[in-house]
Amino acid sequence: MLNARWGPDGHDGTAEVDDRLLAVRAAEGDEEAFEVLVHRHSAAMLQLAQRLMGTRAEAEDAVQDAFVSAWRSLPEYRGEAGFGTWLHRIVTNRCLNLLRARRPAADIDAVAEPAAPEHQSSPARAAEAHAAVRDLAQAMGALSAEQKVCWVLREIEGQPYETIAQAVGIRPEAVRARVFRARRMLTEAMAAWR
Asked: What is the DSSP letter of 18?
């Protein structure tokens, strides 16, 4: 078991508990070690899932399912990739499966509208911002699940093509093609906003 003096971030005041050590302990059944890993990685995984899924509720469900899957799969974790990378792959795959199962129509009300600074708020600007967000949501909804996941991981998360390929289970060339098509579709759909 982890020493009770360690906080949820794995600090004891002098040294950080390594993710791999925590993963090994968790694989042996140490729930406290897994709690530290969940606390350490949940914010980043939730942010990723929300970018992929579009709504916080769906993102939370996907991340929760991913952590359950990770707990069950810990005995197979070999430590070849960092724990965060391994977990990133599980969350991405869970989101991709949910996106594939989703109906094609996008819920445009699920996209958060950016708040305008007070000095720039005017009815005309608010209407324009709302229309732009609506058009972007529709354009994102027109992408295939694979295109959306590859585009978000590359353009928003800044992941290298090789990492995306491993997460999605395709070749890096296929990732490049999906990102290229997604960029082209989004550029065409948003041409009126240039």
From this structure: P
- In tens, the pLDDT along 119-150 reads 556 777 777 777 877 888 888 888 888 999 99
26 token code pair: 């968790």
Q: What is the DSSP string of 132-178?
A: HHHHHHHHHHHS-HHHHHHHIIIIIS---HHHHHHHHTS-HHHHHHH
- What is the pTM assigned to this prediction? 0.66
In angstroms, the first-to-last Cα distance of the chain is 57
Tens of pLDDT, residue by residue over 111-124, are 555 555 555 567 77
Residue 192, phi then psi, degrees to nearest 5: -65, -20
At 79, which amino acid appears? G
